[in-house]
Amino acid sequence: MHKGVGWLIGQHYQGRGRKSKLTKDQKNKLVELIKKGPEDNGFHCGIWNTAMIAELIWLKFEVRYNLNYLSSLMKKLGFSYQKARFVTDRQEEEKYELERKTWLEETLPAIMEKAVEEKSVVLFGDEVSFAMWGSLART
After folding, report:
1. Confidence of residue 125 (pLDDT cuts 50, 70, 90)
2. Is 82 a domain residue?
3. Which of 57, 76, 95 is the last residue of a domain?
4. How many domains does the chain have?
5. Residue 120: which domain range?
6. How large is the angle between the packed helices 67-76 and 50-61, nearest 10 degrees?
7. Quick one: average pLDDT of 47-65?
8. How many C-beta atoms lie closer than 10 Å to residue 90's C-beta?
9. What is the pLDDT, as a whole number, of residue 47?
10. Whose CA is closest to 88, among 139, 131, 129?
11. How does residue 93 score in pLDDT terms, banded at 50, 70 and 90?
12. What is the mean pLDDT of residues 64-85?
């Protein structure tokens, strides 16, 4: 009773866990910076990653965060993890899909049928190569 009635009804409670390294105002500013995108913040990439966000926090607020924790912080700030999806920059995607379908349904079966008739083996070669088209990503 020497600490008063406030102690009994929980007014002493200050919250759990470690105190945040960033203030509420800093977190709001960080959200604004992230929404502007990496390129507006001096990075040469169009997609954020945790290393870039950690560097941004250090440059703007002089606070260091462990990269493993940043995804939790981003979730608390309302962001979610988005995996980039491969998108080809081929202009004639429908033509490509039609040719691929023709190959799989007509050309390849004809080759295999001829190989069976002639009692031969179908061989193919493959090699490591780089795509002739650029890959695009979006989040």
Report:
1. confident
2. no
3. 76
4. 2
5. 87-136
6. 80
7. 94
8. 14
9. 86
10. 131
11. confident
12. 87
